[in-house]
Design a protein that fits this description.
This protein is of the alpha/beta class. It has ten helices and eight strands.
């Protein structure tokens, strides 16, 4: 696909009877993604930390789409107990899952540890999604054209994984650890693709990034300087709307031609905005040793081991 072939939500195929889980679905990219999928007939589970905000999001969508098929479920990705509880409840009510969109994230908070003692951005953006994917893999394998879409960022190219200081105890920098979490997303998405392919699983692992999109991540960051630079200056000048920023992940989730292992982002200048197209991962994200090391570490920290089917 080229940048000139402008892809819009009108080109999403009919999603009737397909089941989606979208993390962070109550605002920003997640809300735009949920709205677009529901418009095309998909049943969307809004996986949100704040159920009241999730219900308000449902009311907002159904005001314009009365027949939208939506449900709200609580999920705190920074708490691995919450992740397990969400997965157990979903499995009890749904025999299959067609698409998991790992969208939710936090950006540049002061150094904070999760309930299990992990740095908050690494816990929420990476470990929670890693665990959720592993716990739902059997439901995905039972789905139709099943996919895992993991949302990274152009910032992954500036990241490094501090295996010797994952919690930031010896030198925490808010944006540095955000970049680390987004690199972890990229490494995970590619490594998941390789392991799914090796086991000949029907599940595809696709990566996406939204470019520079105006969301609550920039305006909600508690770090004052970053809030000013990103929210008050950067957003009005450069950012695209969430509806446009969500296009790469929607393309990754629904376009029949997308292949496992691909990375979808905006096709405009510096990948900041534009129509969805295939883009490139940073070399560090495709490093074999980094992928293996992060996978092993993530299994140990979450206690979740992926049950891949034996290769035929």
């Amino acid at each position: 696909m080229t940048q000139q072939q402008r892809w819009t939500t009108e080109q999403i195929p009919d999603q009737t009877e397909r089941v989606f889980v979208v993390t962070g679905a109550n605002s920003g990219l997640g809300l735009a993604t949920t709205r677009a999928l529901a418009r095309q007939g998909g049943h969307v589970v809004l996986a949100v930390r704040d159920e009241e905000k999730g219900r308000r999001a449902v009311a907002e969508i159904t005001a314009g789409q009365p027949d939208a098929s939506l449900e709200v479920r609580r999920l705190d990705l920074a708490d691995l107990d919450s992740v397990r509880g969400f997965a157990d409840r979903l499995r009890a009510d749904h025999p299959r899952l067609d698409v998991l969109i790992n969208n939710a994230g936090v950006m540049a908070p002061p150094r904070t540890l999760s309930r299990q003692g992990h740095e908050l951005q690494f816990a929420c953006n990476h470990l929670g999604h890693f665990a959720l994917t592993g716990l739902l893999l059997d439901l995905l394998a039972a789905g139709t054209d099943p996919r895992v879409v993991t949302v990274s960022s152009i910032n992954h190219r500036q990241g490094c994984i501090r295996f010797d200081d994952l919690t930031g105890e010896r030198g925490y920098k808010p944006m540095g650890y955000y970049n680390q979490s987004k690199l972890a997303n990229a490494v995970f998405g590619r490594e998941l693709h390789l392991r799914l392919a090796e086991s000949r699983s029907p599940v595809r692992s696709v990566l996406a990034h939204p470019g520079y999109t105006a969301t609550h991540l920039q305006t909600g960051t508690p770090i004052g300087l970053w809030r000013v630079l990103l929210g008050r200056i950067g957003n009005p000048l450069f950012a695209q709307r969430p509806a446009d920023g969500a296009l790469p992940q929607l393309y990754a989730a629904t376009e029949p031609a997308v292949e496992s292992g691909q990375f979808i982002g905006p096709g405009g200048m510096a990948e900041l905005r534009g129509a969805p197209t295939r883009v490139q991962l940073a070399p560090v994200a495709t490093d074999t040793e980094t992928g293996r090391r992060l996978w092993d570490l993530s299994e140990r920290l979450t206690g979740v081991r992926f049950a891949f089917p034996a290769a035929v």
